């Protein structure tokens, strides 16, 4: 019995040493250097697990493609972190952070934070890692708001008049998915559109969003959740109205990029009319849409001044 126990202990020790050495070799291998920030192989594997947790559909892709997506995701995150270092950052409100977390775990069908913590734990991801990522994004949004809020163009008077004349006791909600993308200098637009369309056909819309979308929703397969028709601008609303469930739009030209939307589902709801509340929600939604466009434009601008070296 002692000999048998000794062999098990010896085997376990050898396995531990091998595994620990392997883990260190991953951790110490630098894949990219972004200015003075580094991304290691271990970072990429951890990001891949994070993406798998938030978008289970991504598991249908080949592992090498998932790792490529994870690397691109980390590059975007690092570029934002580098830019944010130039500014004083305010503390993120805990309630706001909890709201974001709740929106994430409800999208993947979980009921509460405890379920979410247990779920991400199976992927080797801690809640602290996710909170750090969300804080980076919240600080980025805060930066964009401070820089561009004064440039927003919202005709509040027209919105008020339109909503007075079109107010109804029912409203349509759309469950939407998005792919937001830019054109790089060396890529033909028609070729890129064809590649995205091919990916949607072969991999599904959610995985195409993970591959091509530059929006933060790419981490959840482009899932925007349920959106009220009153909170969508007229240009996009017309495109969605022509869709059947399961269909997606052609690329819609926006300032700084292109947008493809998929209609996952829709439903009508009865509502009590609170005109002032509806007007404020519409204004806030249009402001957020414009801020997202400014965010995309600003990111493209700062990325040009970032030095990315492969190791």
Describe this structure as you would to a colleague.
- Helices cover 58% and strands 15% of the residues.
- It has helices at 2-28, 41-54, 63-84, 94-107, 113-121, 127-148, 156-166, 189-203, 205-212, 234-241, 275-303; strands spanning 30-34, 37-40, 170-181, 223-228, 252-254, 257-270, 308-310.
- Helix 8 crosses helix 9 (205-212).
- The radius of gyration is 22 Å and the shape is globular.
The CATH C-level class name of the largest domain: Alpha Beta
Gross morphology is: globular
Strand content: 15-25%
CATH architecture of the largest domain: Roll
Helix segment count?
11
Q: How many β-strand stretches?
A: 7
The neighbouring-strand order within the major sheet is 4-3-6-5
Which key features would you list for this structure?
Chitinase A, domain 3; globular; disordered N terminus; three-stranded antiparallel sheet; 311 residues; 3 domains; 58% helix; alpha+beta; 7 strands
